[in-house]
């Protein structure tokens, strides 16, 4: 019993730290954009700078998976790495060109509602009446939050919001689908392999659309990319995987409410982003709705 409680406690700690560190990424991305770097190059820097750590950890620690792991399981890891770390990051980085960091985090925060919907579609998990009402309330809150912004920025905000929604959707699909793989590989190796797969996808993407000008950016771009790689990618990726392994995807999603608040606070101090009273009401509605969706009976 004590051991079980200790594992749950660690899961809670990992979930909180992982969410807080991941939420700092949007602010770092917006800061880097001020120095003229494009989204594809910045994403490449982030993944490539993190890659050596994942390779080192993967080969340093002996795998604990058994013969039940074969080519099929590695194929699924590549798919989930493509889905949850490459596609989600790509949509997010591009969308941040059009949105405030705080608003980006609000859209990403709806992923628990998408986890519930995907679980219903794929596994036929029942959606309760309260969950259904909470999902409706959540999306109403998102609409309220963006209403003022649409009036000022117009189509660019709508496009950016759509891209961030795609990021939330692909991340939710990753959470729903990857849970059964983590016990087979272990948290460390699953995360390392998934990040390696996503880095391969990022490099291939850059080969087709990149400009191959790696060294003409100000030093601040490289420093921010390294910070993103270590503090907003490497460390939280292990923390999130460990939290999911101990708590499950549904329970882990409860702690996501910390993300929007911390991002809004960081964006206020580092980016001077302002949130109107109406937008703050919408944010609180979204947090309430998502918390209700994530709550267990």
UniProtKB/TrEMBL annotation:
The chain crosses the membrane at residues 42-61, 73-94, 106-123, 130-147, 159-183, 190-209, 221-245, 252-271, 277-294. Its main location: membrane. It is a multi-pass membrane protein. Keywords: Cell membrane, Membrane, Transmembrane, Transmembrane helix. Pfam families: EamA. Residues 10-146, 159-294 form the EamA domain. One of its GO terms (cellular component) is plasma membrane. It is found in: Cell membrane. This is DMT family transporter. It comes from Cerina litoralis.
């Amino acid at each position: 019993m004590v051991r079980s409680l200790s594992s749950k406690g660690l899961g809670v700690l990992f979930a909180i730290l992982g969410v807080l560190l991941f939420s700092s990424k949007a602010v770092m991305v917006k800061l880097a954009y001020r120095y003229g770097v494009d989204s594809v190059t910045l994403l490449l820097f982030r993944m490539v700078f993190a890659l050596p750590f994942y390779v080192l950890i993967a080969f340093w620690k002996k795998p604990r998976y058994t013969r039940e792991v074969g080519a099929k399981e590695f194929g699924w890891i590549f798919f989930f790495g493509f889905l949850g770390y490459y596609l989600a990051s790509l949509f997010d980085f591009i969308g941040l060109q059009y949105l405030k960091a705080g608003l980006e985090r609000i859209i990403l925060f709806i992923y628990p509602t998408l986890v519930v919907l995907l679980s219903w579609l794929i596994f036929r998990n029942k959606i309760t009446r309260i969950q259904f009402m909470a999902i409706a309330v959540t999306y109403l809150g998102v609409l309220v939050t963006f209403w003022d912004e649409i009036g000022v920025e117009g189509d660019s905000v709508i496009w950016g919001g759509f891209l961030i929604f795609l990021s939330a959707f692909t991340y939710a699909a990753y959470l729903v689908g990857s849970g059964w793989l983590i016990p087979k590989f272990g948290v460390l190796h699953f995360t390392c392999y998934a990040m390696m797969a996503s880095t391969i996808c990022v490099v291939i993407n850059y080969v087709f659309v990149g400009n191959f000008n790696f060294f003409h950016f100000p030093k601040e771009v490289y420093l921010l990319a390294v910070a993103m790689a270590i503090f907003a990618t490497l460390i939280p990726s292990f923390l999130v995987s460990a939290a999911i392994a101990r708590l499950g995807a549904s329970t882990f999603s409860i702690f996501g409410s910390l993300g929007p608040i911390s991002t809004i606070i960081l964006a206020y101090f580092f980016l001077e982003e302002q949130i109107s009273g109406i937008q703050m009401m919408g944010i609180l509605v979204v947090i309430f709705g998502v918390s209700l969706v994530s709550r267990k009976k």
